[in-house]
Amino acid sequence: MAHPKDQSKMGIGRSIAVLTSGGDAQGMNAAVRATVRVGIYTGAKVYFVHEGYQGLVDGGDNIKPATWESVSMMLQLGGTVIGSARCMDFKEKWGRLKAACNLVKLGITNLCVIGGDGSLTGANQFRTEWSELLADLIKQGKITAEEAKRSSHLNIVGMVGSIDNDFCGTDMTIGTDSALHRIIEVVDAITTTAQRYKHTHTHTHTPILSSFHQRTFILEVMGRHCGYLALVTALACGADWVFIPEMPPEDNWEEHLCKRLIAQRERGSRLNVIIMAEGAQDRKQKPITCDQVKNLVSKKLGFDTRSTILGHVQRGGTPSAFDRILGSRMGVEAVMALLEATPETPACVVSLSGNMAIRLPLMECVQVTKDVTVAMAEGRFEDAVNLRGKSFQNNWNTYKMLAHVNPPEVKSNINIAIVNVGAPCAGMNAAVRSAVRAGLIQGHQMLAIHDGFDGLANGQIEPITWAQVGGWTGKGGSNLGTKRNLPGKNIEQISLNIAKFNIHSLIIIGGFEAYLGGLELVTAREKYEELCIPMVVIPATVSNNVPGSDFSIGADTALNTITTTCDRIKQSAAGTKRRVFIIETMGGYCGYLATMAGLSSGADAAYIYEEPFHIHDLELNVVHLIEKMKTSVKRGLILRNSNANDNYTTQFLYNLYSEEGKGTFDCRMNILGHMQQGGTPTPFDRNFGTKMGAKSVMWLTDKLKECYRHGRIFANTPDSACVLGMKRRSLIFQPLASLKEDTDFEHRIPKTEWWLKLRPILKILARYEAVEIDTSEVAAMEHIIKKTGEIKGGKI
User: Fold this and answer.
1) Is 278 within any annotated ligand binding site?
2) Which residue, 16, 193, 305, 715, shows the most beta carbons closer than 10 Å to its own?
3) Which of the following is catalytic: 24, 58, 136, 164?
4) Predicted confidence (pLDDT) per residue in 450-479, tens digit
């Protein structure tokens, strides 16, 4: 590992070529931009290869030097600016010979390929036969021995750009999240055409029959060999049935499907949604088509059935914030991997696991991806799901659990209450819905507490049913109602109501107040025995400032809102020259939104509380922008977190930049405000909320068994009150009490925040000199085959 101080010199004398290949995916441009800028930052010479492998074979004007300005304003564009083509020539030896010759002539020995598994396999083959290609070129007199010596080996690094998320070893491929955004926009539009639930009689809960339309919608999404898009869409919209190639339905699925749809109708549902992957098949590997399902439902059940095949809509549009950040992080990691590679290191892919950038041997990933296809062909469907990785398994298990329609006849006599605390945010309702349904499936009674801890003190508590939470996944805000007040002064009233309503455990969904409220309840256990019940806090806040979790529900939606707004603001200056925008984001003292929005919208600076800044820093930023205005890029974007500094307010920054920029640029100021808390939840927040809600109920169910003594529940150990959070790579439960040490209570933030390590990337991409990238966490290359345990032999 190169010492961080040497990073800006690491690439001197090196050349890197970047190409995009295969089907285009949103976010590829972010990866290209980061590769170019970080490459230039390290001193390397960077080239664009236009039109994928075809451009590599044809050479000439297809391989051009890239400049810093040439990748400006690329972040928000879908597809790939440098072009992509499916290339047959590169599959032939003569084609690869021409490509090798073009690279040798330009002295390029590092190749960064962004594409699917076919593109990456091709790159690896190219690298494997490199010496042989050079020998042939010398023989043919195309290159000299001296040129061959200078380019004696080729380093390859891959980034996976594929909307299907079909590449094993990576949680998310570039483009998947954006494709989900397109799909969910369509699902939301379709589902609003038929309202979700009929009114039910308040006493009997039997549906009122009405003349309203009863509709079934079938939606086919992309995924010829991988059901990821279909599966996550089904989770995110609460679909009644999903067809995925990895796990075909049982043999008499037609009957099961009809029963499921009838059962949903009887519960009061006015709309059925069926999601299909284009590669849907039955157990005998016979395709299941959209028309086949449509005919079944309309003929057998007489339901008004409509089908929609989404097609290329999914590839289009603006990349989501997640894909831009993913692409940017992968681009940085790819350059580092190339510059540290030796002839001995295998070709690698840079990938994401949880929130960590990791490197994996390219061919191991390709092998496991092929093994999935083999497993499906041989009818080993459980193996296929397992080989897809942990994230896919979790999605499948959550979907299977929530797809049960009939809760057990035998009840558990357990009452679990759910409360929302703090400011509302998108995704809270998804967590409530999945917790309610997961609880009912376990045979528990679920109770809804309205209006936060105040509602718990005032007795605003009532049972909540399966049908009541129908359609909640896609709703923003908080349907239960929420308040910021802590239990504090009402603790006695709260303990009385816990006894009165016979509440055996509590799910608290919210932000920093939920965490503080949970701590107050735990502390009060000494005095009030009623509070000795298992509790779980699910972090849900746009600020992402809850200790114990790297992500919180709602932050992704807010981030996308900020990013879209920044895009529009930047675009507003497209005709005017030399303008700097100063934008204030939410987040309290937590700089997560400002930093991540800075990465996803290509900001020149993001001021946050966690990284103190002084007048000297502001001066440097102004000088930096004045220099930038001398180039072909005439726009500047500055983000400031709301509580970044008491004295250097957004207005102060606006005044400072306006004064110092006089004659060079003018300024505009925008405070984004509460629009960041609203909106329909993004696919990530729906999925995250759904998994968190279900997981919390399963954990409470186990805890309640542990804590049941002498006919009653008594839980007073620290591990009976936890925060459920995403840490690095997995969802884990951490005792509230143990998180106190890592909390800055005054500023309402955790003391350690993982995303601070991404700040240098923001500065390098904005062209600041002498920035250190924190490489302390870059692990040695990990092996994926050992993890899946499927492939024997070889080095494990």
Assistant:
1) yes
2) 16
3) 164
4) 999 999 999 999 999 988 998 899 999 999
